[in-house]
Amino acid sequence: SVPASLPSQAHLDLFAAGVIGDPYHDLNDFDLRWVVWHNWTYSAVLSRLSRGNDSSNSSRSIWLQFNGLDTFADISVCGCHVASTNNQFRQWWFDVSEIVEGCGEEEVMLEMEFGSAPIIADGIAEEAGAETWPYGV
After folding, report:
1. Contact 41, 111 (CB under 8 A)
2. With 80 as the cut, is the pLDDT of residue 67 above it?
3. What angle do CA 101, 107, 111 make, to 5 degrees?
4. Contact yes or no for 78/102 (Cβ under 8 A)
5. How far, in whole angstroms, is CA 79 from its chain's centroid?
6. d(Cα 35, Cα 133) in Å, to the nearest integer?
């Protein structure tokens, strides 16, 4: 487990924590290819969310906004599945009001599990009826 910052990605966070060398130095790009073949989980405690315990907050909604999630991600709040994403080139919005309201904990845990894009893409390519590239491309 290493601290992360946002926006970020696994290589940058592993480098900042001293786990790997500079991904842009020398041939580290090749030496660090193992990073893309693993799944990564980012988690955060969202402790400043105020929940609708009084009448002034009863109609308040809580949304998560992501400006790009690379590429295949599963999002959960308080252990409840929120969404699965499959496109890093778009913005995602999710209403988590009911999940947060039902979360019995003082702190709200957000988890984003990023699957290995090459492994998942290879699996999709092997499915029956999957589109293929023309020979020689």
Report:
1. yes
2. yes
3. 90
4. yes
5. 14
6. 26
Q: Which amino acid is at 77?
A: V
CA triplet 14, 38, 110: central angle to 5 degrees?
A: 70
Q: How many residues does the chain have?
A: 137
Burial class (CB in 10 A: 0-12, 13-18, 19+), 101: middle
Average pLDDT over residues 101-120: 89
Q: What tokens were used for 29?
A: 């790009």
Report the amino acid identity of residue 72: F
pTM (predicted TM-score): 0.82
pLDDT in tens, 12-35: 999 999 999 999 999 998 999 999
Q: Give me 127's structure tokens.
A: 């499915």
